[in-house]
Amino acid sequence: MEKAQQLYEGKAKKVYATTDPDYCIVAYKDDATAFNGAKKGTIEGKGAINNCVTNHLMRLLEQRGIPTHFVEQLSDRETVVRRVTIVPLEVIVRNIAAGSLAKRLGLEEGYKMSRTVLEFCYKDDALDDPMVNDYHIFAMGFATPEELKQISDYALRINDILSEYLRDLNIELIDFKLEFGKTADGRLVLADEISPDTCRFWDSTTGMKLDKDRFRRDLGGVEDAYQEIMKRLLGR
Ligand code: 5GP
Q1: Taking the CB of residue 39, how many other CB atoms lie within 10 A of it?
Q2: How many Å lie between the centroid of ligand 1 and the Cα of residue 178?
Q3: pTM beyond cutoff 0.70
Q4: What is the pLDDT of residues 133-171, one digit of tens each?
C-alpha cells in the first residue's frame, strides 16, 4: 500500500489517501494549538509520541473488544488506519471535574463527581465545538439513536479499560475526548487519537499534570510530560 494524495491537514495530523480506497495513512505533526487555534506552538517529539501512544492504546482496546480504525504503524509518525467517515461529534468522558466543566459549573479542578459524565460537542471549529444533547444530535442527523447508543456504550467501556490500565501506571485518567467513524460497510469504529493531546493525565501520587494542559496553561515541562507518558506506557 502506498501513500497517495493528501486528503486533509488538521491542527495535529495530516491524512493521506493510499492506493487502497479502504485505508488512509495519518501522519502526526509536532505542531500544537490550543483554544481553537488561538495559541500556536511546537512540542518537540510530540508527533512520534502521540502516534506511538495512540497505537498502543488502540491495540489494548482492540484486545478488549472495542473496534478501532487502527491497522498498522508504518514509522515513528505514520500509521495506516481504516478509512472512515467521521461522526461529527466530540465525545467527552469525564471522571474528575476539570477544564471547561469545572469552569462552567464553578467547581474546583479535581472535584470528585459521584459518577462519570458523558458530553457531546458538535465538531465545528468555526462554532468552537458547541455542546449538544441527544435532541440536537437526532434533529440535525449527526447520528441516529442506534449510533449514539453504540457510541455511548463504547465510550464508557473505553473509560473503564483505560482508567484501569493507567491506574496501574500511577496515572489518573481525569477526562478525555474520543471521535468515532463509520467504515464504507457501515461499521462504527473508534477513530482519531488517544494521547496527551486529547486526555487529561494526572500523576496519581503527586497530581502533576502530564498532558497538553502544560502547553495550554504555560506550565513549562511540556516535552518532559509527553516523554513521561511515553515511558510509563511503552517503557521507552
Ligand atoms: P475540556 O472541555 O475540559 O476543555 O476538555 C475535556 C477533555 O477533552 C480534555 O481531556 C481535552 O484534552 C479533550 N478535548 C476536548 N476538546 C478537545 C479538542 O478540540 N482538541 C483536543 N485535542 N482535545 C480536546
Answers
A1: 12
A2: 9
A3: yes
A4: 999 999 999 999 999 999 999 999 999 999 999 999 999
